[in-house]
Amino acid sequence: MERSMLYPVTTRTRRAVSLDGMWNFQFDPQSQGVNDGWANGLPAPLLMPVPSAFADLFTDKDSREYCGDFWYETNFFVPGEWEGQEVVLRFGSATHRATVFVNGQEVTRHEGGFLPFNVRVTDLVRFNQDNKVAVLVNNELHEAMLPAGRTTTLSNGKKMATPYFDFYNYAGLQRPVKLLCLPKEQIVDFTVNHRLDGADAFVDYTVETTGEKDCRVLVYDKEGNLVAESTGKTGTLHLENAHLWNVHASYLYRFVVQIVDGETLVDEYTQKIGVRTFCIENGRFLLNGKPIYLKGFGKHEDSDLRGRGLDLVTIKRDYECMKWIGANCFRTSHYPYAEEMYQMADEEGFLVIDETPAVGFLESITNFLAANQGNGKQVGYFEKETTPQLLENHKQALSDMIRRDKNHACVIAWSILNEPQCTSEGTEAYFKPLFDLAHELDVQKRPRTYAIVMMSLPNTSKGQQFCDFISLNRYYGWYVMGGQNMVDAEAAFHQEMQGWNQVLNGRPMIFTEYGADTMPSEHKLPSVMWSQEYQNEYLDMNHRVFDAYDFVQGELVWNFADFQTTEGIMRVNGNKKGIFTRQRQPKDAAFNFRARWCSLPQDFKK
Ligand code: BDP
């Protein structure tokens, strides 16, 4: 059960109870909690909502910027009728690492802040009584982890996190926590792969269970009619006249997976699944065999007060804004998002490029500027003492992400890193096992990519060879040759594009980032950098370049909305490259995009 990434559901054989709400919370700057028995109850707790990041709820700076150990604790009641079954705690995430205690006893540890984990607590809980769960969370950054950064101690003894990435180091229990009751013999995993044949679809499936009993899979259409059925742990479901899942035209079947013992139902799991194919052919992305041009955003999980905490209200608003503007795709920059975001993409018919938390693998104080990359002279990020441990953590995150997200119709590609240092010797040895692993684990063989930083060029990037399609983050006209220099930026951009043309070998290219910081308060005629007018001129220039190349098959602008970062001279209370403000209201550029994206056909450049 520990390994299961299945989204918790309640069925005839399963119970999923939310533990979200106000928990007890306490900072532990001296890391004394374990020795002092805090797992049995916090000595001086505050109240803290789960899910949420803690940072923006405080009014004092020390609490907001807190780095180190901190605890969450609550009581939960385990119903007596669950006795004889498996009881499991399921954390949507704990950022960045956690140790979980139940009734005072340590039950698990987990590294990585953006993916779920389970822990079986059957033998520790008291039935028909209250039980205590305490979670020791730690939000320090270091170089062997995803995302990367470092932690230092200030002269006042407090720890400070320095991210090597351009988003605020929000932490805590930022996703739902659930208490599950499952049968002893249970479904652990379920995997689908789709094939189309004329009007019909075939779904090859595999069920993984903890026992030997047989399995059955039933498929229901939207009206609730049973349309396909198969027995066995592996098999094929035949959908006649299949309703395919499509962009902005979603169709989800309800798959019911069962373990059966003769007539007895042992376990039952359900998932809504869209049937579609996605592949690359002749330099085109093909969704159900038809070309599709990707239009949309790099995003963040980021909103006022909640930080990176799951907020269904924000998710709903984001999809409404994305539909209004004519987008069809986004990248989960720079970490796997909460599962609820992918469920909504399945429902709304959006394409998702799913990214691991591998960000910040490039050393420089403002690493996101990366102005000196590509000269081949730096010590590579992948030739350090920390590299073997980093690679292990990276493999774990990649496997968990694929295991969690593989059945989502919305997920069309894996982004394995964002802006890594990729011009030095260690690059190939680090990249190859990860790209191979993604291919091996994903039965749908989704295309793999990574977002390539400015100045990592076709002839200097040692990582691009592993990509099924090329993803560029480019800032011509912003970090490079901005302002009046935009004229030269355009020419330099074209020159780089010609270089890429030489190495693509039929692979499509997309832009995973391009953008200009823009203050919604600033209007200026003629334009200056940071004004709304400049953002539009910058975008028009970039779109002129994209439109000149047939191999450019997608544009994901940076960023959907303004977002919080670490404070500093480069950022005005956060990154302002949003097309929407942090409150999800349009800047002028949003209307520019709406005009462009609503008029570009889905198969633009077919
Ligand atoms: C890129 C990073 C992204 C930053 C962006 C920027 O991938 O995380 O936020 O630049 O500078 O380097 O706005």
TrEMBL record:
Q: What InterPro entries does the record point to? A: Beta-gal/glucu_dom_sf, Galactose-bd-like_sf, GH, Glyco_hydro_2, Glyco_hydro_2_cat, Glyco_hydro_2_CS, Glyco_hydro_2_N, Ig-like_fold
Q: What is its EC number?
A: 3.2.1.31
Single GO biological process annotation from the record: carbohydrate metabolic process
Q: Which Gene3D superfamilies match?
A: Galactose-binding domain-like, Glycosidases, Immunoglobulins
* Annotated Glycoside hydrolase family 2 catalytic domain residues: 280-598
Q: Superkingdom of this entry's organism?
A: Bacteria
Domain called Glycosyl hydrolases family 2 sugar binding: residue spans: 18-183
Which parts of the sequence belong to the Glycoside hydrolase family 2 immunoglobulin-like beta-sandwich domain?
A: 188-276
Q: Say if the entry is tagged with keyword Lipoprotein.
A: no
Q: Which SUPFAM superfamilies does the protein's record reference? A: (Trans)glycosidases, beta-Galactosidase/glucuronidase domain, Galactose-binding domain-like
Q: Does the keyword Metal-binding apply?
A: no
Gene Ontology molecular function terms on file? beta-glucuronidase activity; carbohydrate binding
* Record keywords: Glycosidase, Hydrolase
Recorded family membership: Belongs to the glycosyl hydrolase 2 family.
Protein name in the entry? Beta-glucuronidase
Its lineage opens with: Bacteria, Bacillati, Bacillota, Clostridia, Eubacteriales
